[in-house]
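#help-structures

NK: newbie question. if I give both the sequence and a SMILES, will the prediction place the ligand too? trying with S-adenosylmethionine
OV: yes, paste both and it writes out the complex. here, I ran yours:
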Amino acid sequence: MKTIVEGKARILTGDAFYNPKMAMLRDMSVMFLKAVRTRNMRVLDSTAATGVRAIRYALEAGTKNVTLIDINKKAAAVAKKNVKLNGLKLKVMNESVQGLANEHEGSFEAIDHDPFGSPAPNMFDLMKLAWNGTNLMITATDTAVLCGAHAGACIKVYGSRPLHNEMCKEAGLRILLNFTARTAAQFNFGMMPLLSISDMHYMRVFVRLEFGADKSIASMKNTGIGAFCSKCYEYMFEKGVAPLLGPLCPKCKSKMEPFGPIWLGSMRDRDTIMKMRKNSISDAASEKMDLLYEELDVPMFYSVPKLTKRLGVTSVSHYAVMEKLQETGARVTRTQFDPNGFKTDASIEEVFASVRAAGRRK
Ligand SMILES: C[S@@+](CC[C@H](N)C(=O)[O-])C[C@H]1O[C@@H](n2cnc3c(N)ncnc32)[C@H](O)[C@@H]1O
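OV: that's the protein plus ligand as structure tokens.
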């Protein structure tokens, strides 16, 4: 069997799932755990597979009290071998999240959940395992669902109507955050997003739970609805579960496309990102942290190729458009959701004017 080295861990894959493309995300998870680590933190890797994450947490994040579970018998056996191979003494169980949640309520200060597909079916059990101050790290790889390829599936699984255009990744990430906050609120947890990432085929949210009815009520005030007018490219947002967004665009009176509920609060905590950046363990992770630190905390973004196509302007670099916007006094930054996009607090009229000013008509 081949031994793989990732970070400080040596891993045999055997019959367990291992994706080398996720190594950078595991780097970031190590950095995150290091940034939020508390004394005697109890960490759960609830979908261990080879155990690579849990082993790296123990070896690199300085969290020694790590439990690994996997519902798959063969995977749990591989994880057990790997724990031994790395000279560690960690608890490894062939157990499901559901099974563990029934017996270990409120037992972990950090939980990593990285299932195949959607985390939604296990969200309830993850909340049971958490308590005041728990940091949840949750991955979703059902991005086609969250990005609106099948609207019905997203409504069924997450209770939200998705968006199916170039902004779908941000809408999807906010749907995942909203679903997490809504499930957390049922357990009287408020949710504070510390880091939210959309990349390749996955989305991942890092959130802290805070116990208290007041906290959960405050958290739910970040839920809201969006609406998009494909004619004038206008986005509108309104917080609340029964907001008053009209069905027609206030500018052109076209029918708007509603989406949500989505999370309309902040998606990150700059202090956490700064701490992670200081402990960075790879250039790729540092670059990502810089981007996430800088990214403007406003809903949605603009994709320059889409804008130029729409306005009949020759292609133009997103930096040129950003410069034009900056000249107007607007705030503007790069965005994680599109390498050719940007986020801004400028109006759509200012955005269009900047694209026109930066390009030439075809
Ligand atoms: C995507 S893999 C995890 C990969 C791993 N976190 C890593 O970074 O290499 C998902 C694993 O979760 C396990 N799993 C799926 N559903 C589970 C459940 N309800 N409880 C515990 N483990 C589960 C699967 O058997 C599989 O090994």
